[in-house]
Design goal:
heterodimer; A: mainly alpha; rod-shaped; B: 183 residues; mainly alpha; Arc Repressor Mutant, subunit A; 0% strand
Chain lengths: 180, 183
């Protein structure tokens, strides 16, 4: 050992290391260095937060008030509609009944007149029937005063003799109905 | 090696390719750095922690790397500083009457593989008997075969001082082995 020169010795590592140490080391380092995908954190300023909260409170209050108003308005409108429909129903029922009664009577009269008086002018019947049908359709839609006016107009087309005939037929019809 | 270093630096400087740069850097230098650290701190677990911290610091402070030196020189500098910091922490934690060199020698005896030759074990013990600076110079020159210019950048010492330190270190190591070797 007198001539020892350490430069001639082989460079050896005398220490033990675990298996796969370097692979695991790389994984450990990469887990700490590679940026993790975190959810973006938004820092909220206090002032903005308070402003947003106030805006939300006012917004919600406004929305609630507005919806209440609209509900009230809707309720009012609904009640108005109900009232008006009830009124119209009342107003419509009476004239419609009167009109229909008038038309039916008139139509019955005309048919009985046609049966009794065969010589009667066909033109007159045609006019009356057409007017009756047209007014019949109209009764479903239009209100009472219009129907009454039409009935008056129709009646004005008849001569006094024809009206007298109609009056007779009316009586006859009543009896006929009774006897039938 | 220079081409590989340039590639690593290019990858590390771009945020998109930094992960690939870390992988390549570790593939290239982790073994050499580990053994450098292990010879200083001896304990494997401690060496593992120091190596990990070395790469993490290198990753975090890569923007501070001035390309006037080589990358491995910069990494050696970080690893050496981290190792010495860990040793100082250990010294502070140990009892004041315990000799740190004696502690390292005992630790070394526990860490040495069964197949290790006696002369190699004696060599390690002799190195741990050296003063800190001489130990660092000796290890980097003897085991890593680093040029004095690079060691100078790592340890902030002049080349002349390094040569003197190495000469004295070598002499002490040989004397230690001659005194303790049993034929």
């Amino acid at each position: 050992m007198k001539d020892l020169d350490i430069e001639t010795l082989e460079r050896k590592n005398i220490y033990k290391t675990p298996d796969r140490f370097f692979d695991e080391m790389q994984a450990k380092v990469l887990s700490q260095t590679t940026p993790q995908k975190h959810a973006k954190v938004v820092k909220v300023n206090w002032a903005y937060g308070i402003a947003a909260a106030l805006a939300m409170i006012f917004g919600v209050t406004f929305f609630v008030n507005q919806s209440n108003d609209s509900e009230n308005a809707a309720q009012l409108q609904a009640s108005n509609i109900e009232n008006s429909s009830a009124n119209t129903a009342i107003t419509e029922v009476k004239p419609q009944k009167e009109a229909t009664v008038a038309y039916q009577t008139l139509q019955n009269d005309l048919t009985s007149t046609a049966q009794d008086n065969q010589k009667e002018d066909e033109r007159l019947v045609g006019v009356v029937s057409s007017k009756v049908t047209s007014t019949d359709v109209q009764t479903k839609r239009i209100t009472a005063p219009v129907s009454e006016v039409q009935v008056d107009q129709m009646l004005s087309n008849f001569t006094s003799a024809e009206l007298a005939d109609l009056g007779k037929n009316t009586e006859q019809d009543i009896y006929l109905d009774l006897y039938n | 090696m220079k081409i590989k270093e340039a590639e690593i630096i290019e990858l590390m400087l771009s945020e998109k390719s930094r992960e690939k740069g870390v992988r390549l850097m570790m593939d290239a230098y982790q073994s050499r750095l580990y053994w450098h650290i292990r010879r200083i701190v001896v304990d494997h677990d401690l060496a593992q922690d120091v190596l990990q911290d070395t790469f993490i610091k290198a990753y975090q402070n890569f923007h501070q790397f001035k390309q006037d030196s080589q990358l491995y020189t910069w990494l050696y500098r970080i690893a050496t500083n981290e190792s010495l910091q860990q040793l100082n922490k250990l010294k502070r934690m140990q009892k004041t009457d315990e000799d740190p060199e004696y502690h390292l020698q005992n630790l070394m005896a526990d860490s040495v593989s069964a197949e290790a030759e006696e002369i190699q074990v004696l060599l390690q013990k002799a190195i741990h008997s050296l003063p800190e600076k001489q130990k660092l110079v000796f290890n980097m020159r003897y085991y890593d075969d680093l040029p004095y210019e690079e060691i100078s950048k790592i340890l902030d010492m002049s080349v002349g001082t390094l040569k003197t330190n190495y000469h004295y270190a070598k002499q002490k190591v040989e004397d230690y082995i001659k005194a303790n070797y049993t034929e």
